[in-house]
Design a protein that fits this description.
The protein is an all-alpha fold. Helix 2 packs antiparallel against helix 3, helix 2 runs antiparallel to helix 4 and helix 4 packs antiparallel against helix 5. Helix content is 70%, strand content 0%. The chain contains five helices and no strands.
């Protein structure tokens, strides 16, 4: 069907028209996403401070995903106090996991799976650190 340039252009136009029937929705202000973003940033700073660079990178990846979902809204970075030791970081990871798990159960948005994945990741981090 798409063996000629004209066929390719007609096919591309048909696909474009089919995909443009719905308007994109912009997330205006989702409290669950915002809380998850703030926690991810705080946990990344804490993990970096204690030398857990791979765990910090996981949190930065979550933060980047959450920032993309919240666009065009920007959530300012906040400095957080570094955890005193690995036990404090593990406790913060556990609390962050519980927060994300709660969000996955109660969210009114379409991001329940994302919150569940974040909760599982944070629980795994707490287990590794402990």
């Amino acid at each position: 069907m798409f063996t000629t340039r004209r066929g390719l252009l007609i096919g591309a136009a048909a696909f474009a028209a089919a995909g443009c029937t719905e308007q994109a929705q912009i997330t205006t202000s989702d409290a669950d996403l915002t809380a998850a973003l703030r926690t991810a940033r705080t946990l990344a700073q804490g993990a970096d401070a204690l030398g857990y660079t791979e765990i910090a990178e996981d949190h930065r990846t979550h933060a980047a995903t959450l920032e993309r979902l919240l666009r065009p809204n920007a959530i300012a970075e906040e400095e957080a106090a570094a955890p005193a030791d690995a036990d404090a970081l593990a406790a913060a990871e556990t609390a962050g996991s519980a927060e994300a798990a709660e969000s996955s159960m109660t969210t009114q948005s379409d991001y329940a799976v994302l919150f569940g994945e974040i909760a599982a990741s944070r629980a795994a981090h707490a287990a590794v650190i402990a």
